Amino acid sequence: MTVRTVVVDDSASMRAMVSHLLNADPMIEVVGEADCPATARTMIKELNPDVITLDVEMPGMNGLEFLDKIMRLRPMPVVMLSTLTQAGADATLKALELGAFDCFGKPSHSAFSLKDYGDELTSVVKAAARSRRGARPMEAAPVTPSNYRPRPDALIAIGSSTGGVETLIRLLSSFPENCPPTVIVQHMPANYTSTFAARLDRLSKPRVVEAAGGMVLEPGLVCVAPGGVNHLTISGREVRRCRLIEGERYNGHRPSVDKLFLSVAQTAGASAVGAILTGMGSDGAAGLLAMRDEGSVTVGQDEATSVVYGMPAAAKAMGAVQIQLPLDRIAHRLLQECRA
């Protein structure tokens, strides 16, 4: 089935480039190009596309305002395109919270990176068309008791990708101020994770920071892996610390969920709990299996509440997922497994 797509961007050259990259995939057809939200609104009504790509920074009604209207009046999969700047990072995270399926930095003009970008963009657009956003309404999450206390040796490790921003916000909103030490890999560009960690910190009771090398993992601290440059791993058994290591992409990603989970399996074993959440591909499956083999409790998000049931599905197929749960039940289970 062909994915019918509308490309929205005020730049004619950017519209042409994105359309060219998408049309190169035989499963995608760009059925319209719009230079502003007003034109896009008409195209959406007339063409009824499966997916739209939307520029964040546009004159007049910007992409965020238009996205908000789409999600309230005609919900559909939207892939946001943004510059890789601090302002772009702020707008991107807001777009994901408003309901965008995913966000990408705008492509560069070098041939090699443009091909890689095109491969990733077409994968996301096709995944957006298959997405099951809103398939199951969330139930009320169990309330964490006010007297919650984690085990001294407890550690929570979480991996997520596409759909993970909104998912992690909802997950951490259930964490108490003195939650077990928690480490997270969310696939994101390099400039985005510090902004994301700051937003999580504002919306959560525990302290949330971007991980730094040598940072001691302690109760009430949530560390988010820096995007794009290093892999986040854990070192030390008596005193656990964040360790950032250089290296090529692993399983297609840097930071890699697999790298984090493998290090947790080695250093924390049965005292750790792992969770693999919504995302494309299979990053984290092998690492979660290693955690389970070392005695960790392992949890996977179910298909109905995943924006993309890729990473959790790969982990489940491999035998890495011990317990599969909807999103609204995962935080409670992780916390109970770590309770003193």
From TrEMBL:
CDD domains: CheB_Rec (cd16432), REC_CheB-like (cd17541). It is an enzyme of class 3 (hydrolase). InterPro entries: CheB-like (IPR008248), CheB_C (IPR035909), CheY-like_superfamily (IPR011006), Sig_transdc_resp-reg_Me-estase (IPR000673), Sig_transdc_resp-reg_receiver (IPR001789). The active site is at S161, H187, D283. The keyword Hydrolase applies. Its EC number is 3.1.1.61, 3.5.1.44. GO terms for molecular function: phosphorelay response regulator activity; protein-glutamate methylesterase activity; protein-glutamine glutaminase activity. Coiled coil: none annotated. Its main location: cytoplasm. Residues 150-340 form the CheB-type methylesterase domain. It holds the Pfam family CheB_methylest. Contains a C-terminal catalytic domain, and an N-terminal region which modulates catalytic activity. Involved in chemotaxis. Part of a chemotaxis signal transduction system that modulates chemotaxis in response to various stimuli. Catalyzes the demethylation of specific methylglutamate residues introduced into the chemoreceptors (methyl-accepting chemotaxis proteins or MCP) by CheR. Also mediates the irreversible deamidation of specific glutamine residues to glutamic acid. This is Protein-glutamate methylesterase/protein-glutamine glutaminase. It comes from Sphingomonas jinjuensis.
